[in-house]
Amino acid sequence: MLDKHTNKILAIKNASKSFIDTKVLEDISFEIKENENLVILGKSGCGKSVLIKCIIGLLEFDSGEVEILGKNTKGMSKEDWNKLRGNIGFLFQNNALYDSMSVKENLEFPLRRSEHKITSEEIKDRIHEALMDVQLEHTIDMMPNELSGGMKKRIALARTLIMKPKIIFYDEPTTGLDPITSREIIDLMNAIKIKYKTSSVIISHDMHCVKKTGDNIFLLWEGKCAAIGSYAELEQRKEKNIASFFIKD
Amino acid sequence: MNINPGVRKTIEDIGGSSSFFWRAASSWFKPPYEWNEFIKQCYFIGYKSLPLIGLTGFIMGLVITMQLRPAMIDYGAEAQIPEIVGIAIIREIGPVITALIFAGKIGSSIGAELASMKVTEQIDAMEVSGTNPFKYLVITRIFATTLMLPILVLISDAISLYGSFLGVNINGHIGLKLFTNQVIDSLSFSDFIPAIVKSFFFGMAVGVIGCYMGYTSSKGTEGVGKSANSAVVTSSIVIFIIDLIAVQVTALLGYN
């Protein structure tokens, strides 16, 4: 599934997106290698969520190319997308847990819908493992409305993990959480990276999260790439739009 | 031309629902078939609506009979109450009132549920999980409402007639067997068929409009309330429009 020569997991080339007359993304290009985390940093409304929704096919780029796990997604059929999505995880900003289903049913859902036939025994084992990973085994029969904000985020993460994806997209994983829970989620994301050897695209404007999770940072400014580099590199940059993210009190 | 915004919105909703219906119709016989979700929806939409539909049906039969009785006594036709009530309930009042109650309960619930799923990105999450949310959420609900409403209408009709029987017996006396015989004698095959056929269309309209309002909802949480409200208003109007068309069609086919 990987690009054999470069271990490239994801590559975006010259991608652009507009809504009616408004250009949201312009000429975006970047690559992510195996076991690498890329943070997309930018102000609210600069097009970060649109960017990852375009990458995973919930929206479509107007131009440019996307290659995920060695597959070019341009003109890809629904069936091929469904196969590819078996290797992609997505943690939604609002968790997107199914309200009408228990925690167990939420975790079962992607497994039961999978193209690969998974036995009931294996489903049980995977649910157990995913809940162990997020340390919430006791919530298995609870409904989403019985969980706290942090617990919901962990269960959503468990649902993302259950398909054992090769790449995970995190849409503002720490937004709306208290600092302690936020740190716990960051630790969990790093633990997942080590245990499952996943690559990740993380959207965030929480600088603690950016610093702790990102191998590289892609700075999005007014729909364009303002800079790419490590936290330490970007921290030294003097341009006003870049430096404004790294201001220390 | 100046059109009242409320009227314009309702016309837009009817137009939008029609194109949504064609989108659904073009995909509902294509696999995969979501049987489990369809059965679950039939349970929620049909079985869970039964107490409300049964209660309103009972009250409807009782009240119609009590209101009708003084006028029938004036005309010396008290004995014809079972026949008149039977025809009115089976042909018109049963299907239309049941469909309106159904639109209020199920249409609003589907509209609010899907709108809430959209706002909280649950529909996107379903797509990311490799599920076609349109088939899973929309097609199953449209089929369930289409199938369940005619069954609920038949049950409601039966309960209404029992309510009518009790209504007759408040101030008079008639045996259940005689009452039932009088109702059955007054009805023919051509009274049942158009009523059941139009109930299928009422059910489909409630499902399509509820799903359309929820699935295309916007404006965040504010949109959830609006979707539920629009689903009921538009469904109710469409039910009367279908009823009007059904009367014309049954007259043309010689069922009147």
Secondary structural class of chain A: alpha/beta
DSSP helix fraction of chain A: 25-40%
Unreliable spans of chain B are none
Enumerate the strands of the largest sheet of chain A in spatial order, edge to edge or round the barrel. Answer: 6-7-8-3-9-10
Structural class of chain B: mainly alpha
Major beta-sheet overview of chain B? none
Query: How large, in whole angstroms, is the Cα Rg of chain B?
Result: 21 Å
Q: Name the beta content range of chain A.
A: 25-35%
Radius of gyration of chain A: 18 Å
Number of helical runs of chain A? 9
Shape of chain A: globular
Morphology call of chain B: elongated
Which stretches of chain A are low in confidence, meaning pLDDT under 50 for 5 or more residues running? Answer: none
Greatest contact between two chains: A-B, 25 and 15 residues
Q: Helix proportion of residues of chain B, in percent?
A: over 70%
Portion of residues in beta strands of chain B equals under 5%
Largest sheet of chain A: 6 strands, mixed
